[in-house]
Design goal:
This protein is mostly beta strands and about 200 residues long. It is built from no helices and 17 strands. The two termini are about 20 Å apart. Pfam families: DUF1349.
C-alpha cells in the first residue's frame, strides 16, 4: 500500500475521533477527552478508548509512519499501533511523561507493560517502523526517516493477519492535534537486526 492510503479510506476506525480529516498522504486528528489504551497492570483498570485507524495486514509485514505533534501534557501520546484484539496489541511512539517527551512502547498480552526512554531528538516530528514476522515484533524509531535505531524486540502473538496504523491518546485531557503522513504497509523488510537503514 502506498503513502496515499489515508485518502483511499481503506482503514477502519476504533474510537473514531470527533474531528479528523484525510487528504492525500495525510491524516489529521484532534483527540477526544480521556482516550487511552491500557490493560490492568499497576492501575488495575482497562482502557480501550484511544483513537486507532487500522489497516489489515498479511501475517508478516513492515509498516512505517511519520508523526507530527506538539506534546504538552501528561500522557499525551501518538504513534503506531499493531492490534489483534483488545488484549493483544502494541502501541509505540512519543508519550509526554515526567515533564518531557519520552520514546514509549506498551506491549499487551492480556496485561500491559510500559517501557520508556528519553527521546534525544526533536519530538514534534518523528517516524515509527514496525515489523512483524514469525511471532516476533521489531519496533524502530527515526528522527529523519533514514536511520532507524531499535526500540524494542519482543515475542508477539501469531495471527493470520493484524491491524496496523496511526494511534493517538490523551488520557488526561482532550484537544491534541496530531498529523500522520508517509504511512506505508509492505512485506517484511527482512533486514539484519543491526541494519539500521
Amino acid at each position: 500500500m502506498s503513502a496515499a492510503i489515508f485518502a483511499r479510506h481503506d482503514g477502519v476506525w476504533l474510537n473514531e475521533p470527533e474531528r479528523w480529516t484525510a487528504q492525500g498522504d495525510g491524516l489529521e486528528i484532534v483527540t477526544d477527552k480521556a482516550t487511552d489504551f491500557w490493560q490492568k497492570t499497576h492501575y488495575g483498570f482497562c482502557r480501550d478508548s484511544g483513537h486507532f485507524l487500522g489497516f489489515q495486514t498479511a501475517e508478516a509485514f513492515t509498516a512505517e509512519l511519520r508523526v507530527k505533534c506538539d506534546f504538552q501534557e501528561l500522557y499525551d501520546q501518538a504513534g503506531i499501533m499493531v492490534r489483534i484484539d483488545a488484549e493483544h496489541w502494541v502501541k509505540a511512539g512519543i508519550e509526554f511523561s515526567d515533564g518531557r517527551a519520552m520514546l514509549s512502547s506498551v506491549l499487551t498480552n492480556g496485561q500491559s507493560d510500559w517501557a520508556t526512554a528519553p527521546y534525544q531528538h526533536y519530538a514534534g516530528d518523528f517516524w515509527m517502523r514496525v515489523t512483524v514476522t514469525g511471532g516476533v515484533l521489531r519496533l524502530q524509531a527515526s528522527a529523519d526517516g533514514k536511520i532507524w535505531p531499535l526500540v524494542r524486540l519482543a515475542p508477539f502473538t501469531k495471527a493470520g493477519s493484524y491491524w496496523v496504523g496511526p494511534m493517538a491518546c490523551t488520557p488526561e485531557r482532550e484537544g491534541l492535534p496530531v498529523t500522520f503522513t508517509k504511512f506505508s504497509l509492505k512485506p517484511p523488510l527482512g533486514k539484519d537486526l543491526h541494519d539500521l537503514s
